[in-house]
Amino acid sequence: MENLLQRITIDTEICHGKPTVRGLRYPVEMILELLGAGMSHSEILEDSEDLENDDILAVLQYASKLSQVKSIYKVDAA
User: Fold this and answer.
1) Which InterPro entries match (predicted)?
2) What is the rounded distance in angstroms from the CA atom of residue 18 to the CA atom of residue 23?
3) What does the alpha-carbon distance between residue 48 and residue 71 come to, in Å, rounded to a whole number?
4) What single string gives the DSSP state of each residue in the chain?
5) How many domains is the chain partitioned into structurally?
6) Confidence class of residue 2 from pLDDT cuts 50, 70 and 90?
7) For 12, 16, 20, 67, which has the most beta carbons within 10 A of its beta carbon?
8) What are the pLDDT digits (tens) for 8-57?
């Protein structure tokens, strides 16, 4: 599964440095938004012919890693 994370790339010249799939112009956040809106893997793949199923799995694994925090602190708004 660790190899999946290699599909997520960050390049300041692509999508303003946001994490993307394999250096393509598919930001991780966009794929997550599509999944969150109810699109299935197959629907996303149909709409984006250069994406692969492992790309979507990589996006999910990347999001999972980002959510693994040791502690959360409340910050009061000023």
Assistant:
1) DUF433 (IPR007367), Homeodomain-like_sf (IPR009057), WH-like_DNA-bd_sf (IPR036388)
2) 10
3) 37
4) -GGGGGGEE--TTSGGG--EETTSS-BHHHHHHHHHTT--HHHHHHH-TT--HHHHHHHHHHHHHHH--S--------
5) 1
6) low
7) 20
8) 999 999 999 999 999 999 999 999 999 999 999 999 999 999 999 999 99
